[in-house]
Amino acid sequence: MKKRILSILLALIMVAGLLPAAVLAADAEEEDLPFTDVPEDAWYADAVAYVYEKGLMIGTGETTFSPEGTITRAMIVTILHRLEGEPADEGMSFSDVTDGKWYTAGVSWASANGIVNGFPDRTFRPDGDITREQLATILHRYAKFKEMDVSVGEDTNILSYYDALDIGGWAMSAMQWVCGASLLPEPEDGKLRPQDAATRAETAVL
């Protein structure tokens, strides 16, 4: 089950292909990393090398990966939509998601299938950086949509983390799942930082 989850998470890394003029190699051959901003001893270096060599992720420039760069909510739902073959499901409408945007169909599909719900003010905030707890929740819902076993997190105690009470109630089961399945690296300072923006480095490690 964990292997299937990791495959989904690695596929998510292809969000780089959503950027204008981005070209994703179909069969990337193993080669030295061209990124000058990824030190060899960085905690995420091996993960970046892997996703780059497999053609799952490209840089933000010829020699930059931008490990501390962020990923938007629109990018995440759009790549999931593409993984599903871009079905034309219509979900709830959001006041800030207009027709004709590159992410419109993806947001509509994700909403129709319970993968996203948006915010109480009926906005989706497509350009907003996705937080760690939001990313966990979307992946958790997508895993259930794919009828994957997510029970690994049911008995996971995450109250031992210093900031566990900062996790939104709506995201608690999802954060339990990613911790229980070891999909997030164990934080050295004992903090999950659920409301911090997920970075490209973290996504690569996932």
Describe this entry's structure for a reader.
With 206 residues, the protein is an all-alpha fold. 33% of the residues lie in helices and 0% in strands. It has seven helices and no strands. The chain has helices at 2-12, 45-53, 73-83, 104-112, 132-145, 172-180, 200-205. It is globular and about 45 Å long.
List the SSEs and their pairings.
Elements: H1 2-12, H2 45-53, H3 73-83, H4 104-112, H5 132-145, H6 172-180, H7 200-205
- End-to-end Cα distance, whole Å, is 15 Å
Helix content: 25-40%
Poorly predicted runs of 5 or more residues: 10-29
Strand content: under 5%
Radius of gyration: 17 Å
Oligomer: single chain
Q: Could you give a short account of the major beta sheet?
A: none
Quick overview:
33% of the residues lie in helices and 0% in strands. It is mainly alpha-helical and 206 residues long.
